[in-house]
Amino acid sequence: MQLQGLNKTFGSNRVLQDITVELPEKATTVIVGPSGSGKSTLLRSLNLLERPESGLYQVADLNIDFSKKISSKQVLDVRKKTGMVFQDYNLFPHKTVLQNVIEGPVQVLKQDKNAATKEAYELLDKVGLKEKADFYPDQLSGGQAQRVAIARSLAMHPEYILLDEPTSALDPELEAEVLKVLADLANEKQSLIIVTHNLFFARQIASKIVFVEDGQIIFDGSSQEFFDQRQGNPRIHDFISSMSFTGIKEGTPQE
Amino acid sequence: MWDIITYSLPQILSAGVKFTIPLALIAFAIGLALALVTALVRISHRGGVFVIVKGIFRFYVWLFRSTPLIVQLFIVYFGLPYLTIPGILENGVKFSPFIAGIITFSLNTGAYASETIRASISSVPNGQWEAASSIGMTRGQTLRRIVLPQAFRISVPPLANSFISLVKDTSLAASITIVEMFEVSQQIAAENYQPLIMYTLVALVYAIFCSILTVGQNYLEKRTNRHLNQTEGE
User: Fold this and answer.
1) Is residue B83 one of the residues assigned to a domain?
2) Chain A contacts in chain B segment 195-234 (CB below 8 A)
3) Chain A contact present for B131, CB below 8 A
4) For the segment A107-161, what is each residue's pLDDT rounded down to a tens digit?
5) Is residue B214 part of a domain?
6) Do B136 and A108 touch (CB under 8 A)?
7) Interface contact B135-A93, CB threshold 8 A
8) Which residues have a Cβ under 8 Å from the Cβ of B47 and sit 6 or more positions away?
9) Touching check for A74 and chain B: CB below 8 Å?
10) Which residues in chain A have their CB less than 8 angstroms from residue B146's CB?
11) Which of A92, A130, A212, B35 is 20 to 30 A from residue B176's alpha carbon, by CA?
12) Pick from A72, A82, A92: which is nearest to B146 by CB?
């Protein structure tokens, strides 16, 4: 997955400025940065929930030019390759956990319902929620809901799963159960792109870190380099030290 | 007094079964369909010629919400027969009283209910649209399978309100010569000089009809809310 020269403005605010970055497959890329830095917009652009005004986007064999009109076929193709997990889960409240998971496979991929159901149970088992298949989202804890959302995106067999602050709405102990699922996925070489505030988790899971500030990429490199740079680069240093106070939470996986 | 009731109640109920209930049911069904179409047109993002279609629907909603129902009934039943366009329409547009009633009540209900449905659709969180489109669902699929079912739950109480209003508003059909319940009670009151008893009696019959609808509403609310945790809404 590659982005080249991405630009996006909201009014006079340049949210993304000439973003060029490579997001490798079978790896875990963590995008960090202060609030309002444009990191969520960047992530949402990968699923075409946001449309930058210009720039090139390449994912697998698809090439998107944001300065041209994007056809609905292209949109669908990109969305099949990129699953999205939202901060506030966005499960469908009128559907059971199982129905949430099979909705995409049956309606979009036109899979056979029985086959989709069978696979949905396997995915729910994987995120530890097989027994909640017939529950409604409203009967789940936040951590459970987010794990269902991860199962829902996995059911589409996307090449990349994009996670937008997946644990920011969760209490620490619920956060841990979601992070464990993500760590398992990372170990299985599922390509993940995660926007998070949790630097401890980033350090533990990321093979690559992208640091975004004011719509620009300030750092793009390995996790090791990023944390080593905290002395050398004042912006990274400031960011890490501001996060370290708010970022320490009980139950957060640490090295 | 018992004699008056046993004499008039069967006639009122018979008018209810023949006119009030069919008027209300048919007009509500057509009105709902019209309301859904109107709401969907008005929330559509389509441009081009479609903007004109949107304008027409907006005009329709404005027109029927800004004029009295009884005046609308009079225009459709008494007025339209005088509508002539030389060469095209020479003899005006004539409807039977019942059809004129159905048309007017449907259009009126449709205008109000379309606003209810439109508001219900917009009250479904944007995240639902995003989640559905992120898994590749089209706008149509998202509406049908994700947004409308949730909007329906939200719109049950206000739509039930519209239905109850419609049942009572059918009494205005008396003014275009439909012999519905209120008209029957007026006729009997004119014979027996018992307006208090007659109008109280017909009021009670309306109240019973509407109470049945309220029971139906409660059932529908329970059914559409069953996926929600019981603690919600406290």
Assistant:
1) yes
2) 227-229, 232
3) yes
4) 999 999 999 999 999 999 999 999 999 999 999 999 999 999 999 999 999 999 9
5) no
6) yes
7) no
8) none
9) no
10) 92
11) B35
12) A92
Contacts of A86 in chain B (CB under 8 A): 127, 130-131
Contact check, Cβ <8 Å, A108/B135? yes
Distance between CA atoms of A98 and A155, rounded to whole angstroms?
Answer: 11
Total count of domains within chain B: 1
- Domain encompassing residue B105: 22-181
Q: Mind listing the pLDDT tens digit for each residue in B94-149?
A: 999 999 999 999 999 999 999 999 999 999 999 999 999 999 999 999 999 999 99
Cβ–Cβ < 8 Å for A114, A105: no
Residue B32 falls within a domain, yes or no? Answer: yes
CATH of the domain at B155: 1.10.3720.10
CATH number of the domain located at residue range(s) A77-173+184-190 in this protein? 3.40.50.300
C-alpha distances out from residue B88 to B84, B91, B100, Å: 8, 9, 22
ipTM value, please give it: 0.90
Give the confidence band of A247 by pLDDT, cuts at 50, 70, 90.
Answer: very low
Mind telling me how many Å the CA of B168 is from chain A's nearest CA? 33
Report domain extents, chain A: 1-20+46-68, 77-173+184-190
Beta bridge partners of A58: A2, A63
Taking 70 as the pLDDT cut, the residues of chain B under it are 229-234
> Which pLDDT score is estimated for A245?
53
Strand order in the sheet with A2-10: A13-22, A2-10, A54-59, A62-65
B197 assigned to some structural domain: no
